[in-house]
Design brief:
The complex is a heterodimer.
Chain A lengths: L12 E5 L3 H4 L1 H12 L3 E6 L11 E4 L5 H14 L5 H7 E2 L1 H8 L4 H8 L3 H13 L16 E5 L1 H4 L4 H15 L9 E3 L6 H6 L6 E2 L3 E2 L3 H10 L13 H9 L5 E5 L3 H4 L3 H9 L3 E6 L11 E4 L8 E4 L4 E5 L12 H16 L13 H11 L8 H4 L4 E2 L23 E2 L18 E6 L15 H6 L4 E4 L13 E4 L4 E8 L7 E5 L28 E7 L1
Parallel strand pairs in A: 1-2, 1-5, 2-3, 4-15, 5-6, 9-10, 10-11, 16-20, 17-19
Antiparallel strand pairs in A: 7-8, 12-13, 13-14, 16-21, 17-20, 18-19, 18-21
Helix pairs in contact in A: 3-6, 3-7, 3-9, 12-14
Chain B lengths: L1 E5 L2 E5 L5 H7 L23 E4 L6 E2 L10 E3 L3 H14 L17 H8 L16 E2 L5 E4 L8 H10 L5 E3 L6 E3 L16 H5 L5 E3 L12 E6 L8 E7 L2 E6 L13 H5 L14 E3 H6 L22 H4 E3 L2 H19 L4 E4 L6 H15 L4 E2 L5
Parallel strand pairs in B: 1-5, 16-17
Antiparallel strand pairs in B: 1-2, 3-4, 3-5, 6-7, 7-10, 8-9, 11-12, 12-13, 14-15
Classes of the chains: A alpha/beta, B alpha+beta.
Chain lengths: 547, 378
């Protein structure tokens, strides 16, 4: 997030798209509710009638995959009506003219035809967002223009044009000048407890800790010196989905998995299983025997986050300390101890000698000291400073207070760049053979591949089994049938049916928590976003058959 | 800014602040039951009555806007007498079961009864609400302890936005209810337990808390939730090293007192008997290594096809050294034969910063590849 969670309650307008906030980030939805109760306008752009729609001023219900047309039309309207923030664009951005020329091709009438959203709704959303209009009450901010914030999640990014969509939302924010101020910004809501931290600390194929590019020779040399190695690899590595393809082809031979369950979470499960089976070595380190663990050669028992020290970085970049609450069961160990031991033994078999303590650390805190030394955005942090409320990065020096919201006065790259983005349709469209669109995601009471929540008694009581949401219009003859078979070009899945107007006609929704109805048997892995390499979980073509 | 005096202290506050807010900001505690800093003002309990110089009658401090030169008294003989009478009325239909009550030590009514020296009611005692609802595994609703402060109703509407409950009926018949008093699961309740969090008495209690010890038997540890990326701070109350219940504290930097269903109630997975507790090697690999006498092959059917697969059917437990050495050796062999880019590391968005850092350091500085990714995209 560019801005912090607590600022949401003071926003004048909230624009939420591709995020089922009340389900996937309930506590952030509480901030949204607070803002609405204080008089903020809430605009929701989503194919599904998500719970927050009950509190919205405007609900732009798009056909899945057509949001890009609506965003472009909103920006078209803002420019046409003169609602742009001229000062902001002149002082803080570049590339506006080229961008404007592209946006001119996308009038609301065109978006309405494609998305099904009425022109008037698009124009109202444009005005309310751009000017930061409130529904009632007075703003806590003195500015001429109200403060509007964009919140989004995987509905935007799990798309074959996800990067384009994120750049579009950034363009929208810059048009209104809704960046670099409290209660504004472009705010991705991140899905997992430490997904932000795992990215920050370099568990990505193209960057070292602190988003330092692996292709940058100077950065590589500096880090190699810090780590006391002669050199570091300079070629971008393979992402998860690419690695699965490489494993099938025999190019990747060994996979070390720490706390992941690709058999449930990755697209096109049949292909993932084939890839994992073809490995010479699969090591799975986890807290439960996951579906992936059953294919491993070696399984290692890990401690859960409730059982260890360390730190998590949340979606607003706040680094906070964990404390062990209970003891780990049996011989389970914290992951950092296990990885350190594996690395030390790997060295031993290759005959590599390193200084003692290179891999095996006495405590999580000792690792954090090294993190701070090589990760500039974490440079000023220490366990001592993190105690209490934590610190949001960037925090480069010990006397830096951390950063509540980004891009004040100037962007990280200097001027904000308007990227002239064109509309693209999802890679797999419904057709006569597969007439429905499948979208995947979460339900409130479960989390990701369900390894934890499905073993929680109260949560499993509330939502015991897998189900697919189908609009009444698509459910002819399915009601009371005791289940349905969903088929895509990749595979088929059986699921219980829940007739629901949360999904529009032509779209069905299946969460990916259910091992008995594994949604990713259906999803496609052939068209990834070209930059982020994210699979298009939100749109694939399916058909229904009576079970 | 407004200048006023509370209990003889000169105080400066922002325009629009209430006397309750001004007092609390300056460390002056005005007794209250229905007031909650995150919720709208109700003014129902009357415990926060204060005296204003120049006005004949006391006024509830929670709904009183500060004005310039106001002189407020939060303690006096008259106010104490009034507060005693209010507490006396509350306990005329609230059983004083404090000796067996799980909430003892954390109950606001008990706290004020103690502070104002009320040990029994002077009125005829009669429990007006007797409903006991244990219709879900998250929380219990024991209406005899309810004082109708309405905090639960307000939090459900004003913070959670679920609007699952409302106060229905009149007089002694009034109680907090779902539509038509139906089961909780049929309402719009999202089982976040925010109502339980703000309940001042034992009317709303976590199921896991029942009979597990008194407040002073429990110790508390705060950590960060392991589910989504919001980063809520949760305080776990423990007894003998086991979690009894979870709650949030007002000073939690992100979430304040509020959590979702998974955070507040979804911690019992950790003690599931299905947890992995020992390193294990797959039976075919173990057989090749001479660790088991029974040959075995991995079945062709998907692990997903098996409704309840048992890990011990496919794996044999080994000690840590055997497992770690085997991994070190096989990884080294792979790198020697096929090069570092034949190895892929998948780390986890559920593991800590320290673990993710060390993991990618191993892949890069140890193995020598940038093939390191995690579930950020999934």
């Amino acid at each position: 997030m560019t801005n912090s969670i607590r600022e949401i309650r003071d926003a004048d307008c909230l624009f939420i798209t591709g995020s089922n906030t009340a389900v996937s980030h309930p506590v952030i939805s509480y901030e949204v509710i607070r803002a609405v109760k204080r008089g903020a306008n809430l605009i929701i752009v989503d194919p599904r009638r998500i719970p927050l729609v009950d509190h919205a001023t405007l609900f732009l219900q798009i056909k899945p995959g057509t949001d890009i047309y609506v965003f472009l039309a909103i920006m078209h309207t803002i420019i046409r009506e003169g609602w742009v923030n001229d000062t902001f664009i002149a002082e803080r951005t570049e590339g506006f003219d080229k961008f404007k020329a592209v946006v001119e091709e996308y009038p609301p009438e065109r978006a309405a035809l494609i998305s099904g959203v009425p022109v008037e709704q698009i124009e109202a959303a444009a005005r309310i967002y751009a000017l930061g209009e409130r529904a009632s009450g007075t703003s806590i901010y003195d500015d001429k223009r109200g403060h509007s914030a964009i919140l989004y999640a995987m509905g935007i990014t799990q798309r074959s044009n996800g990067t384009d969509l994120v750049m579009t939302l950034a363009n929208l924010a810059m048009l209104g000048g809704h960046v670099g101020k409290p209660s504004t910004g472009v705010n991705p809501l991140r899905g997992q407890s430490n997904v932000q931290g795992a990215c920050d600390l370099g568990c990505l194929v193209n960057v070292f800790p602190g988003y330092q590019a692996v292709t940058d020779e100077a950065k590589r040399t500096t880090l190699a010196q810090a780590w006391n190695v002669p050199s570091l690899p300079g070629e971008v590595g393979l992402t998860i989905v690419e690695a699965m393809h490489a494993a099938s082809e025999g190019k990747v031979r060994a996979v070390y998995v720490m706390g992941e369950n690709p058999m449930m979470s990755d697209p096109n499960t049949s292909h993932v299983e084939h890839a994992l089976r073809s490995l010479d070595l699969l090591v799975v380190q986890d807290i439960f025997p996951s579906e992936t663990a059953f294919l491993a050669h070696i399984i290692l028992p890990a401690a859960a986050s409730l059982e260890k020290d360390g730190s998590f970085t949340n979606t607003e970049r706040r680094v906070q300390l964990l404390k062990p609450v209970i003891a780990a069961p049996g011989e389970a160990r914290p992951d950092w101890q296990i990885t350190g031991e594996i690395a030390a033994r790997f060295d031993h078999y290759l005959g590599i000698a390193r200084e003692p303590g290179y891999w095996v650390f006495p405590s999580a805190e000792a690792i954090f000291k090294e993190i701070a030394a090589v990760t500039p955005i974490y440079g000023g942090m220490s366990y001592q400073r993190l105690a209490g409320a934590g610190i949001s990065w960037p925090c480069p020096t010990p006397d830096h207070a951390g950063t509540q919201y980004l891009h004040v006065g100037k962007f990280s790259r200097g001027l904000g760049k308007f990227n002239p983005v064109q509309a693209h349709d999802p890679a797999e469209q419904p057709d006569d053979e597969y007439p429905l669109i499948l979208s995947t995601g979460r339900v409130l009471y479960h989390y990701h591949t369900g390894t934890m929540t499905r073993r929680s008694e109260p949560l499993a009581w509330r939502e015991p089994g897998g189900f697919v949401e189908i609009n009444p219009a698509d459910a002819d003859g399915l009601q009371g049938s005791g289940g349905v078979v969903i088929e895509s070009r990749r595979g088929s899945v059986r699921a219980e049916v829940r007739i629901s107007d949360r999904v529009p006609p032509g779209t069905i929704f299946l969460a990916f928590h259910w091992r008995e109805s594994p949604a990713n048997m259906l999803t496609q892995d052939f068209a990834l976003d070209p930059v982020a390499k994210i699979p298009e979980y939100k749109v694939c073509a399916v058909r229904l058959k009576q079970a | 800014m407004i200048q006023l005096t509370i209990d003889g202290r000169a105080i400066q506050v922002q325009d629009g602040a209430t006397v309750m807010e001004a007092a609390r900001a300056n460390g002056i505690d005005i007794p209250h039951l229905c007031y909650h800093p995150d919720l709208s003002v109700s003014g129902g309990c009357r415990l926060c009555l204060v005296e204003i110089e120049g006005r004949p009658f006391p006024v509830p401090g929670c709904g009183l806007a500060c004005a310039d030169d106001m002189v407020i008294r939060t303690q006096s003989e008259q106010l104490s007498a009034m507060r005693r009478e209010i507490i006396d009325l509350f306990i005329s239909d609230h059983p004083l079961d404090c000796v067996t009550c799980d909430k003892a030590g954390a109950c606001l009514l008990q706290k004020y009864a103690y502070e104002y020296g009320i040990s029994e009611t002077s009125h005829d005692f009669e429990v007006s609400r007797t409903l006991y609802q244990d219709d879900n595994p998250f929380f219990l609703r024991d209406h005899q302890y309810c004082i109708l402060c309405g905090r639960c109703v307000r939090v459900c509407s004003e913070i959670v936005g679920a609007n699952a409950i409302e106060i229905v009926g009149r007089g002694f018949e009034s109680h907090v209810a779902t539509p038509f008093d139906g089961p909780m699961i049929d309402s719009s309740c999202v089982f976040c337990g925010s109502c339980v969090q703000v309940c001042p008495t034992a009317a709303l209690m976590p199921v896991s808390r029942r009979g597990q010890g008194r407040e002073w038997d429990l110790d508390r540890v705060k950590t960060i939730c392991g589910y989504c990326g919001v980063g809520c701070e949760i305080e776990y109350a423990r007894r003998n090293g086991k979690i009894v219940y979870a709650q949030a504290r007002p000073d939690a930097p992100v979430n304040g007192e509020f959590l979702c269903s998974k955070g507040r109630y979804g911690w019992d997975f950790a003690t599931s008997p299905q947890r992995l507790t020992r390193p294990m090697i797959r039976r075919d690999v173990a057989y090749d290594l001479g660790l088991t006498d029974d040959p075995w092959t991995l079945p062709d059917s998907s692990p997903l096809a098996d409704e309840k697969p048992r890990i011990e059917d496919s794996f044999v437990p080994v000690d840590w050294d055997t497992a770690l050495n085997l991994i070190g050796e096989r990884l080294a062999d792979t790198v020697k034969e096929y090069g570092p880019d034949s190895v892929m590391g998948l780390s986890s968005a559920r593991c800590t910063n320290e673990e993710n850092y060390l993991f990618q350091k191993f892949m890069r500085a140890g193995i020598g590849t940038n093939n390191v990714d995690h579930c950020a995209r999934l």
